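queue> holo job accepted (adenosine-5'-triphosphate)
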Amino acid sequence: MIELSNVSKYFGSAKAVDGVSFSVNEGENLVLLGTSGCGKTTTLKMINRLINPDNGAISIKGKDIQQENPETLRRSIGYVMQNIGLFPHYTIYENIATVPKLLKWDTNKTRPRVMELMKKLHLPEELLDRFPAELSGGQMQRVGLARALVADPPLLLMDEPFGALDNVTRSSIQAEFKQLDELLRKTIIMVTHDVQEAFELADRICLMDKGKIMQIGTPSALLHQPANDFSRKFLDGQRLALEFRVSTLKDIWPYMRAKQTGIQRDQPDAPEEELHRTLGLPGNTSVWTALELAKANAQTNKVSFTALMDGFTQYQKAVRHE
Ligand SMILES: Nc1ncnc2c1ncn2[C@@H]1O[C@H](COP(=O)(O)OP(=O)(O)OP(=O)(O)O)[C@@H](O)[C@H]1O
Ligand SMILES: [Mg+2]
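queue> job finished
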């Protein structure tokens, strides 16, 4: 769907983006991850021609974007700006309806579409006549997302879409974001510097440093097969939390069987739930299911927290080929 080949951008003598190549498949969510100033925003802005590259080529659906009219191109791509970027003198309605206005949609088409998105993004209708300054940060980010989605573009570029939020609001918006039907079919390139967020939302992560790609791959590949020292060190501080994110109950189940649980080989499998969810919520139903399964099948045995952690440790050894 999108292909960057050997793309570079210089500001003066500084290389903001330095020979970047990657491709993104249709329907995929690629996350650009890296420290401040590594070239994430510049990379994103080259895809909708807000910035023109000095070298290299970018194509969308096989068409070189340099051959397209920048305005037409931009209307076909949803863009959520870093720091939200709502127009301060436009009402919320006018902000969301920006692209439909440029596309000269009829009001009979625009208004129901804006209302539909307000509903899907849990924004109360009374916000429509307010100005951005009269909204909370979380509401503004939702409006930014609504504005990007309104014309249903197949491609969405999002620059730190949840950046301004506190942790609680952030994880609830992330969870909603993952389930939003509007996003399921879309190809998304999303920027973040938050490792946990990247692991939560990415199909693949593109890890950048000083304008270059350090590694590109699935969250699990970054964690278990780091391509270099930078990759390894970037994740080191949060390794355990990330392992809990990429490992599921199903992954560790076979390793628990061998331990003190007494679970037999022919017994049913555990749910495919990430361990951080299992462990994060007391009384979580899936743990409950797993515990009940184990009890029902092994009768006298139950799976304790210790057994779960033992299984996890054994699984870790196996994936690291120790
Ligand atoms: N218009 C500009 N003129 C000069 N230098 C720029 C310009 N835009 C970006 N840069 C520089 O290019 C580099 C990459 O910037 P970019 O905004 O792409 O980083 P980023 O990865 O998005 O960082 P952050 O996480 O802080 O948003 C930085 O060193 C920045 O100072
Ligand atoms: Mg940026």
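queue> The beta strands are 2-11, 14-24, 29-33, 55-60, 63-64, 77-80, 155-159, 187-192, 204-209, 212-217.
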